[in-house]
Amino acid sequence: MMSCSCGHDRTEKTCIEIVPIFNTLTYDEMMEVARITVARSYKKGEMVYMAGDRGEKLFVIHKGKVKISRLSHTGKEQVIRILGPGDFMGELSLFVHGPLTDNAEVLEDTTVCIIDGEKLKNLMAKYPTIAFKVLEELSSRLERAENLIEHLGVHDVETRIVEMLLDLANDEGEVVLNMSKRDLASHIGMSQETLSRKLSYFQDMGWIKLIGHRRIVILDEENLRSLI
Predict the structure, then answer these.
(1) How many domains does the chain have?
(2) Which of 62, 71, 114, 173 could form a disulfide with 218 if both were Cys (CB 3.0 to 4.6 A apart)?
(3) Are 54 and 99 in contact (CB under 8 A)?
(4) Which residues, given as ranges, of the chain have pLDDT below 70?
């Protein structure tokens, strides 16, 4: 683990500068955050933290990708979200005393900036915009979680897949997945086999085209929407 080099190399933005909760601060104010921050690098497959660990830190992704998940009592994994540069995690431990409840696994070589939680709370009191930004992100995550719960409880498998495709597609109708199909299947509440079978069916019907493991092109949006 090393001290954060925020501000020393101006050729590349640091994690303090790219994370939205700090982007309203002045440069000098960002340096105050940098002084309570250390950087750590992780290899693919390593854990940033695990359920049960002591929290009280804010983890900001500078480079790379991290999967946030939880395990059921039977050992089944539920993928909560995939985070990338500028995203943060562990924020609930700043406000709720108790161990962390999810797992943060590195999906590719990643650099994380770790901010001391108690000192960060002092800065929140000094700069309320930081606290408001954290609340905005928590509210947004709560809304996404509630929408996911609704989809899992109300919609069948095909509907969930179609809505996922339409939601992730760009203006050209192309979906580029930021997670594996196994993690995607877990996230929308089904087995990888079911997801693969339904996507193959959609391709056989001429509604989509599967390209490699991470790209999907929507060819017939109208027929896909008819399944919703």
Answers:
(1) 2
(2) 173
(3) yes
(4) 1-12, 148, 150-155
Q: How far apart are CA 62 and CA 65, in angstroms?
A: 9
What are all long-range contacts of 224-227, with beta carbons under 8 Å and residues at least 24 apart?
Answer: 224/162, 224/165, 224/166, 225/162, 225/166, 227/158, 227/159, 227/162
What is the token pair recorded at 78? 């539920």
For the chain, strand residue ranges (E) read 2-3, 37-42, 47-49, 57-71, 77-83, 88-89, 103-116, 174-176, 208-211, 215-218
Q: Which residue has the tokens 């161990």?
A: 99
Q: Rounded distance, CA 1 to CA 87, Å?
A: 20
* Two tokens, residue 41: 């690098």
> Scanning the structure block, which residue is given the tokens 């640091």?
14
Whether 162 contacts 221, CB under 8 Å:
no
pLDDT of residue 94: 79
15 is a domain residue? no
- Would you say the pTM of this structure is higher than 0.85? no
What is the CA 227 to chain-centroid distance, rounded? 28
Assess if residue 9 is contained within a domain. Answer: no
Please tell me whether residues 116 and 168 are part of one structural domain: no
Do 39 and 82 lie in one domain? The reply is yes
> Quick one: tokens of 154?
């109300």
